[in-house]
Amino acid sequence: MSADTTGEPVRSPRKLARAVIVVGVLLVVATLVLDMSGSAPRLAGSDRVRTEVFSIVAPGGSTVCQAVGPLPSDTGTARILVGTYYRPLPPLVLRFLDRSGGAVARGEVTGGRQGNVSFPLRQLGRSSTVGRVCLHVGGRFQVALAGTPLPPGQFGATVDRKPVPGQLSIYYLRRGSASWWQFLPVVDARFALGKASFFGSWTLPFVAVVVLLVWIAAVALLWRELG
Amino acid sequence: MSRLRAMFAGVPVAARWSFGIALVNAIVWGLIVPPFHVPDEQGHFAYTQYLAETGKPPPQQGGSAYSPQEIVALRDLHFYSTIGDPNQRGVITPAENSTLKADLAKPLSPLSDGAATSTTNQPPLYYALAAIPYWLSPSHDVLSRLALMRLLSALLAAGTVVAVFLFLRELLPRLPWAWTVGALMVAFQPQVNFIAAGVQGDNLLFFASTLAFLILTRAYRRGLTPRRAVAIGAIVAIGLLSKLTFLALVPGIALAVALLGWRERHTGWRRATLMVVLAAVIAFVPLGLYGLLNLTVWHRGSFFAGGTAGATLTTLPNGGGAVTLRETLDYIWQQYLPRLPFMHRNFFPGGNTLIHVWLNGLVGRFGWLDYGFPGWVYTLAEWLLVPFLILAAFALAQAREAVRRVLPLFICFGVMTLGLLVAIGYAGVRYQLSTGFQFAQARYLFPLIALYALFGVTVARGAGRRWAPVLGAGLVLLAMAHGLFAETLTISRYYG
What we know:
Chain A is α+β, with helices and mostly antiparallel strands. Chain A has helices spanning 14-37, 180-191, 203-225, and strands at 43-46, 53-58, 63-67, 75-83, 92-98, 103-109, 115-120, 122-123, 130-137, 143-149, 158-159, 162-163, 166-168, 171-174. Chain B has a two-stranded antiparallel sheet with strand order 1-2. In chain B, 51% of the residues are buried. The chains are: A alpha+beta, B mainly alpha. Chains A and B meet through α1, β1, α2 and α3 of A and α2, α6, α8, α9 and α19 of B.
């Protein structure tokens, strides 16, 4: 393949190469800004149970309960994956309880279809005191709830106080929607956690600056070699 | 020493810049991806920790695979609830972080029993190298050690990028733009960087494989000398001691060395044969020593410590019967090409594996294959592949005279490629029939990353001599954008 260049070196249209570089960088920046400006519900946390299968089947009129950790303070909505066997969604009431059984937060849904069901929560107490969650299934028909199955003999949730070999996945969403720009302080705070703290709370800003420098270096190299 | 300095002085400035860019970019990825979230990183860390603490590879004989330090770290990081579910997060509150730090500050043992994991049956070279930052870490905290060990992978990824640069320079000496374009395409490839982000033995495999492409090309163009024979042998030895997957490349490399020896016949058959033998001895003596140590000193069960067991399994567990030759051949075919009517078993019900497994995997399937780009990105990649293939075919047709000159070498590269593809399929059918899970992942092709870069510059060359650098610039910017949005995607996955 080297023979195609055995003749005189060809002068490439340098200006066009440089134009491609400039336009490309501008396009990427514009796309990034646009992407980060999109508003959507953002995660506040979860009960740490993975959605693997429909792990619990709850009959109509039953109540599913399980132990959970504290509710994140910024939670506005709880989300559960519910299967109804293609029937309409029955009335569902979700309650977060403290150790003594008092309601800390409550949400209910009436009507709708199977799938991810969001429960807007009304705060009734201090979210840090939550130790248990209960979901009451109204109507006459059973529903399937997503979560993680447990090995035979191990129990997670209860259905009408009877232990069942499965756990329920619950995802907590923050109140309202936010763009990534609005959510950036939260991402910044989270980014520094759960890893070696060489840069502390400056980890994400440090990464952003280094990414910028890498881009500058790569563009400079392209400019020099191709432009 | 002066020879080494002269060798580095001969490395072009653009290659050094490419090295720096790739190194820093991989370090950034290492900061973005949370601890242990690179595939199998917890196993690779456990191997290194055992080796660093005891001076020998894990014996794989029952007990615990992970040290108490690592077990506590994985628990407090919510590792097992986070992998596989893109809506789960790791540590995201100060309270969880305080618990993690407090638990890791306790006097926990760094020693495990060295029980088997998916990585313990591999040779110890990468882990011996990773033990250096493990020991050098000023903190004995697992997370600090892991962060420093990740730098080794970043360094190897940057080395791979330079090897790509030099490979292209060797192959296309009069197209300087192509060297930079190919190197930067690899430097920003997000799937490469995702693996380079973590403690992962594959990084040494990718580096050694790329060096093999480089040294074979160099020897093909400049002739086989004793030094180059030594270099070929040493690179093969490094590859074999990094991961036994490298064995799949050996038939192609052996063919290339035989070809190189044959091309040297004018210097005398005796000399040519000696150089081939020299390369072979240097390549395989370390592997033999490793096998003997497994059997006699480390007591790791067998010559390869079980490293080829997955690929040579003939009977499935739990009475699953034997894996037949026909099943193996059907699987290997279907892993890359559409199923033919006479193949009665459909191993990939998802359809076209070339697109769904390999192309989409190259575009990006991150984490424990639990998150990726929105669907339209993969569709766009499929559409882009069509003009790219046309441009590449056009470039090859235009350069057919030059292609003919390097055809024997590329036949050897073809055998290396075929060896890898067959090895992936051979291990894959046994894994899939044993576990029910699909085996293939795009990263298994990264020993061929030099050819990925070559494809990129061939596509650019398809635009014609005049416009090739322009398209090359566009391809690099596309790769950079691809990498950047993969980074933001990863940030949103773990911290959003």
